[in-house]
Amino acid sequence: MAGNDMQALVLDHVSHSFGGVLAVDDLSLSLSKGEVVCLLGPSGCGKTTALRVAAGLEALQQGRVIIANEPVAGAGREIPPEDRSVGLVFQDYALFPHLTVAGNVAFGLRGLSGSEKQARVQEALGRVGMAESAAAYPHMLSGGQQQRVALARALAPQPQVMLLDEPFSNLDARLRQKVRDETLHVLKESGTTTLMVTHDPEEAMFMADRIALMRAGRIVQEGTPAALYYQPVDAFVASFFGEINQLEGVVVTEQVSTPFGPVDAKGFADGAAVAVLIRPEALHLSPPEQSANGSIPVNGGAVEVMASRLMGRTSLIHLRSLDVPEQETHFHARVPGRFLPMENQRLRVELDRSQAFVFLRETD
Ligand SMILES: Nc1ncnc2c1ncn2[C@@H]1O[C@H](COP(=O)(O)OP(=O)(O)OP(=O)(O)O)[C@@H](O)[C@H]1O
């Protein structure tokens, strides 16, 4: 197989149960060399189990695991974790407290001479900006520094694949952003194929070339962050990436009416009960007589402001519909920067239809 086509990591129809609980249900996922892929999903959906099966920390029950084109688990074969060429980083940095930083990073290096080992340790610590702390002990470092050392330790043997499980979740919010930024650049510069588990959609969008969103042991949708955000396959995916306005409607000639005008429902039968999901940033607000581009909008609606709040980089406006006053739900619009209309002010709203999604209503 040509170099570029090489699949660095393949999980092939992997299933895994604990007692009667099916934690991973027929999961297949391939990572190309150098790709950063995030396994994303709510608590308990099976992300960690899938990662542990890939690492060999859970014995494979069903399916196959292939690393750099070599089957490492499946069909009676089970190569132990230390022989799989994987680097592991978990949320608790798990450094050895009695070893120095350099000692920790050197720990997993095998088959190298003393000077080669030293050079590799220096290189790995340099990558994460910790070269000057080589002689320090873990307790002398901050959480963020310890996590960088853990990353260096995992990278030092130059593994085929890095497996990261919630690696930033023990860090406070500011430090988390800094360390994940550094981690992304280290992984990309070193060209390391990475599978990372997270429950945080923003973190996944920050880190991932591709996201595999899981629910109840299965991958619901896999693709670029933009694909999942703009072309969600169902309401679960659409609503996983942040708050979303949800309306109910009925399809009439392939359209659903909303307080902001009709929305396309191509392919849905007449009378189908649907949910319309609208992202807050899809509601564009303007003064009553004027639309965003200066003309009276053909599609759109009249709304009244219930409350306005500055949220930092965006403003959040709570709205009620004047066109459909019996509509019980109120709506949230998110506008970039500072936009704080007065309570009870009337506005026009235009809908960006590329961020309005129609799905059959789930009946159960
Ligand atoms: N060692 C175990 N023994 C029994 N059940 C387990 C074990 N590990 C995981 N499970 C169960 O398997 C399911 C998937 O767990 P897993 O930890 O893989 O999910 P997750 O998506 O990583 O969740 P979280 O983010 O909360 O860790 C859950 O129902 C969990 O309770």
UniProtKB/TrEMBL annotation:
InterPro entries: AAA+_ATPase, ABC_SmlMolc_Importer, ABC_transporter-like_ATP-bd, ABC_transporter-like_CS, ABC_transpr_FbpC, Mo/tungstate-bd_C_term_dom, NA-bd_OB-fold, P-loop_NTPase
Gene Ontology terms, MF aspect: ABC-type ferric iron transporter activity; ATP binding; ATP hydrolysis activity
Keywords: ATP-binding, Cell membrane, Ion transport, Iron, Iron transport, Membrane, Nucleotide-binding, Transport
Biological process terms in GO annotation: quaternary ammonium group transport
Gene Ontology CC annotation, any one: membrane
PROSITE patterns: ABC_TRANSPORTER_1 (PS00211), ABC_TRANSPORTER_2 (PS50893)
Domain ABC transporter: 9-241
Designated name of the protein: ABC transporter ATP-binding protein
Organism field: Pelagibius litoralis
